[in-house]
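3.2 Worked example (two chains)
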Amino acid sequence: MVGRDQTVREISSQLKTERFVTIVGPGGIGKTTVAVSVGHDLLAEFAGAVHFFDLGPPQRSPARAELRCLDARLLVQSSDPTPA
């Protein structure tokens, strides 16, 4: 991910003090990519309690398939004893 380090740091910092952070902007600018990067950055700090929920319409693009795989990986790393 090129040129988003500052944005990821800012959102990560906000999530340490706020329960909910919204990432907004026009389609295609990388909101989902930033959100997934933030999740990866905070995974250890939140003891694996990081989850990705795609609320968009189902699509069959390679990017969506990759995010579904990432979603499953993040859920597997959770210490939650109940299945997702």
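3.2.1 Second chain
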Amino acid sequence: MTPIQGKGRIRVIHKKIEMGHDKKIALVAHDNKKSDLLEWAKYNLDLLAHHKIYATGTTGEILEQEFGFKITKLQSGPLGGDQQIGAKIADGEIDFLIFFWDPLEPQPHDPDVKALLRMAVVWNIPIACNRASADFMISSPLMDGDYARLVPDYDGYRSRKIPREERSQQGPMDSAGGDNTVKGSG
């Protein structure tokens, strides 16, 4: 990010990322929420039909069988699907995340879930985590038009100089004052 200072305030420079008329939407649901997502998607089928849909594992299989149109299916969430969706968000390949997650059930891949939600926030994409927020998002007038979302300009962050410390050039024992020679067994 490239902050600009002026009159006591810091302003962050943003870039615009264009989202076309047809959005790229990721649909993800934990096991206890798959039926909710399926019901929601059935109700909104006409609105979803012209968009490009991505989904993780089983959710994608269920949706594709139910609706009969192509869904880009990724791995199941616990097998890396959440991370695949996060990578696609970072690469600009996904515009929206509709993720019905289960707040009452611990997930073995909770760190992946948190990372996915973090990517959505970092790249400023709309996120719906329940039916009500998904209903508001899908029915927004912005949904079927072009939209330029603002994302902080991360070029400054990417090109920052990383200080090189003297210790990074020493062996692990050198910095502690010992020697780093390997001793034989005999």
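3.3 Remarks
The longest helix spans residues 110-122.
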